[in-house]
């Protein structure tokens, strides 16, 4: 107990601090993950194993596991009922009801009996896409809808999508002044707040980029939808770690997590919350 | 090509009545348009609920539930899409088709306008179309993405653009950047003349459900175990949470301080702390939010035995929860916040469209009701947008029913006759043809 949180490890980097230390933000989500984990009753063993990973030598390993834990925790936040798997059956209607007598078409019967979740459907869809990609000649057996999707040019969402990466290679060079868009009225700054005297300054006016041509607009509007996965906003390489500097919070009170528990890696704000956390840390993981 | 024109000639006349369903994961917005008469839409919980006594409530029946503690929900809509038709059919029948349905409908004489989120899966769309025609037998039907319907509004009115009184709004709006932040997720959709620019649609997987669950987690760690109290926590979130315009400052004003110390702002609440009285479903049926009372604890001790109120003091929970819309990385999600999502969407488009889109941003959906949401979003987009672009963000009077009202305007617009499909066409040309027609939408 007197050496709280510090476990003998093969690493020479082990700091014999009295259980806490001010640390740089190298493992951003430990606090969130640890906080979340303490609500996950099923994960005590894993958590107990994780606590061994509290020296910098093992951070990489810990990070991988924290990452997995984090993913599970985000998934938990996605449930309709936070804490339970709920199965609420549909009660059969009394036979006097008109609907109960009604016969379903085979399509409808199949749909109504399906117990697939969205994740199941998404997996099916992506498997189909992969299959059609690897075997493009096979006529789609899954119907025109999926075939249409397979034919969809995949709009690349890689890092740094250039702004000219509009579908169908629509040129986005400024259109010549003779091709005036008939589809959109040229942008004029709404008269709010009141226009500035310099608004008419030709130098400023010229900085408003010209509208795309009608052909470009038509091409844009005719482009097919992205897939569910493609439409998800994601960090670009440039964003990673820069635009979103990790903000770490105190697991106990939610203020900035400036102190790390050397035992489990959890973040806390200061001594008082560390003490609160230690009680948890001890009772939860023993020692 | 689809034999649209030919089939139109032997079509029966369009039904005179349209049912508009904005079929959200949390609530359905439903109502009729007949001629120029537009219903006030009903907002119907899209769920089957079970209370602690195992009593089942279908959709709007939940208002009869006397005690919402430990209520569990089954929701047919997942990630915004109708996935479980067994449950959705039960709910639709209860609300529209049963003998005692509150909004009775004869599908054979009704056109249906049904919303879906963008970027759906083909199988879910096909399932939907088959149910609509083969099970319910609607005479006419249009399925389209919810955000697009918002173009059928007087968008310049929403944005308060000064103009001559009596100016008639052009429908659909010429240019609009629509942000829909609902229960399942938040999407950014650029629209030109009511048509979505598909490749630029972006989604953030943060919505009201995640926020409620996150608040549940925080409260359960810090106060009481609320993990079975989704309903109560959701009410608390709606009443107490706000989007911070000074995130760091608000943290300072709600922090207790280091050991022993109690900061002044902590003791007096710092203008942020609120007391929330939990419902007990005997004397209090709905939670009550009150200004923080520093003396409450000692008062309660004096009244020991009399006072049975359960009170939570909410501090940084008030603003850390909606913050996830702007900083999903706070819980480790590797997704950009809303403002960056807007910029990611714009970066797919020619720069010539940016000024128009940035000056015409409209936000709808329940999360837009958080105090501070519009201001914060505007502030963040201004920081990210090119300096010469003028940024305007506005929220319609009722961001919950805005999509539905747009649908009602579409029902009265001539475009609906081009967009919708008749039952005979479905029978003649099949589900794949219908799916293609809906995805093609209006040609310019
Ligand atoms: Zn703390
Ligand atoms: Zn610890």
UniProtKB/TrEMBL annotation, chain A:
Residues 247-274 form the HIT-type domain. Keywords: Metal-binding, Zinc, Zinc-finger. GO terms for molecular function: zinc ion binding. One of its GO terms (biological process) is chromatin remodeling. Residues 171-188 have a biased composition (Low complexity). Residues 150-200 are annotated as: Disordered. One of its GO terms (cellular component) is nucleus. This is HIT-type domain-containing protein. The lineage of its organism: Eukaryota, Fungi, Dikarya, Ascomycota, Pezizomycotina.
Automatic annotation (TrEMBL), chain B:
This is Actin- protein 6. It is found in: Cytoplasm; Nucleus. The gene is ARP6. GO terms for cellular component: cytoplasm; nucleus. InterPro entries: Actin, ATPase_NBD. GO terms for biological process: chromatin organization. Its main location: cytoplasm. It comes from Daldinia eschscholtzii. Belongs to the actin family. ARP6 subfamily. Signal peptide: none annotated. Keywords: Activator, Chromatin regulator, Cytoplasm, Nucleus, Transcription, Transcription regulation.
């Amino acid at each position: 107990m007197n050496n709280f949180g510090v476990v003998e490890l093969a690493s020479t980097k082990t700091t014999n601090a009295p259980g806490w230390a001010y640390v740089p933000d190298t493992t951003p989500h430990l606090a969130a993950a640890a906080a979340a984990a303490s609500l996950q009753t099923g994960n005590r063993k894993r958590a107990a194993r994780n606590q061994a990973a509290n020296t910098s030598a093992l951070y990489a390993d810990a990070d991988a596991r924290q990452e997995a834990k984090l993913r599970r925790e985000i998934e938990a936040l996605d449930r309709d009922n936070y804490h339970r798997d709920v199965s609420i059956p549909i009660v059969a209607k009394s036979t006097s009801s008109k609907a109960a007598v009604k016969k379903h078409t085979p399509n409808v019967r199949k749909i109504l009996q399906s117990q697939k979740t969205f994740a199941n459907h998404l997996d099916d869809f992506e498997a189909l896409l992969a299959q059609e990609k690897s075997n493009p000649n096979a006529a789609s057996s899954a119907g025109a809808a999926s075939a249409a999707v397979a034919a969809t040019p995949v709009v690349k969402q890689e890092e740094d999508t250039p702004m000219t990466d509009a579908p169908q290679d629509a040129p986005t060079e400024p259109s010549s002044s003779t091709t005036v868009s008939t589809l959109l009225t040229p942008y004029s700054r709404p008269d709010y707040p009141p226009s500035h005297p310099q608004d008419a300054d030709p130098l400023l006016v010229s900085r408003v980029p010209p509208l795309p041509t009608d052909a470009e607009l038509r091409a844009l509007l005719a482009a097919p939808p992205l897939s569910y996965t493609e439409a998800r906003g994601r960090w670009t390489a440039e964003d990673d770690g820069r635009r979103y500097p990790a903000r770490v919070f105190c697991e106990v009170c939610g203020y900035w997590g400036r102190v790390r528990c050397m035992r489990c890696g959890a973040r806390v704000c200061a001594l008082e919350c560390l003490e609160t956390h230690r009680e948890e840390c001890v009772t939860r993981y023993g020692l | 090509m689809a034999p649209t024109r030919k089939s139109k000639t032997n079509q029966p006349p369009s039904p005179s009545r349209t049912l508009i369903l904005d079929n959200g994961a949390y609530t359905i917005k439903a109502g009729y348009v007949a001629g120029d008469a537009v219903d006030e839409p009903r907002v119907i919980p899209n769920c089957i609920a079970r209370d602690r006594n195992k009593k089942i409530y279908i959709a709007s029946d939940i208002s009869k539930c006397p005690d919402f503690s430990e209520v569990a929900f089954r929701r047919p809509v997942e990630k915004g899409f109708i996935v479980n038709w067994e449950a959705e059919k039960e709910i639709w029948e209860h609300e529209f088709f049963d003998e005692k349905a509150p909004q009775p409908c004869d599908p054979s004489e009704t056109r249906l306008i049904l919303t879906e989120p963008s970027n759906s899966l083909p199988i879910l769309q096909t399932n939907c179309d088959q149910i609509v025609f083969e099970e319910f037998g609607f005479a006419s039907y249009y399925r389209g993405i919810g955000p697009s319907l918002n173009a059928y509004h007087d968008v310049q009115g929403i944005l308060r653009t000064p103009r001559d009184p009596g100016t008639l709004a052009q429908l659909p709006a010429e240019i609009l950047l629509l942000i829909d932040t609902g229960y399942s997720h938040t999407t950014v959709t650029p629209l030109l003349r009511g048509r979505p620019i598909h490749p630029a649609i972006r989604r953030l997987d943060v919505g009201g459900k995640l926020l409620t669950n996150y608040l549940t987690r925080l409260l359960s760690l810090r106060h009481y175990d609320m993990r079975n109290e989704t309903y109560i926590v959701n009410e608390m979130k709606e009443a107490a949470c706000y989007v911070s315009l000074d995130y760091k400052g608000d943290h300072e004003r709600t922090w207790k301080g280091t050991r022993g110390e109690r900061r002044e702002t902590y003791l007096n609440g710092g203008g942020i702390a609120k007391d929330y009285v939990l419902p007990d479903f005997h004397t209090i049926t709905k939670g009550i939010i009150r200004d923080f009372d520093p003396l409450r604890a000692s008062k309660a001790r004096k009244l020991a035995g009399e006072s049975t109120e359960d009170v939570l003091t909410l501090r940084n929970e008030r603003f850390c929860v909606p913050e996830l819309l702007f900083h999903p990385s706070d819980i480790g999600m590797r997704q950009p916040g809303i403002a960056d999502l807007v910029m990611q969407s714009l970066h797919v488009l020619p720069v010539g469209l940016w000024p128009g889109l940035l000056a015409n941003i409209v936000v709808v959906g329940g999360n837009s009701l958080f105090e501070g949401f519009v201001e914060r979003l505007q502030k963040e987009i201004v920081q990210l947008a090119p300096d010469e672009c003028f940024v305007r963000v506005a929220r319609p009077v009722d961001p919950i029913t805005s999509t539905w009202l747009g649908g009602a305007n579409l029902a009265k617009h001539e475009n609906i006759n081009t967009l919708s499909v008749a039952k005979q066409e479905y029978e003649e040309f099949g589900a794949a043809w219908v799916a293609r027609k809906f995805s093609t939408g209006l040609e310019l």
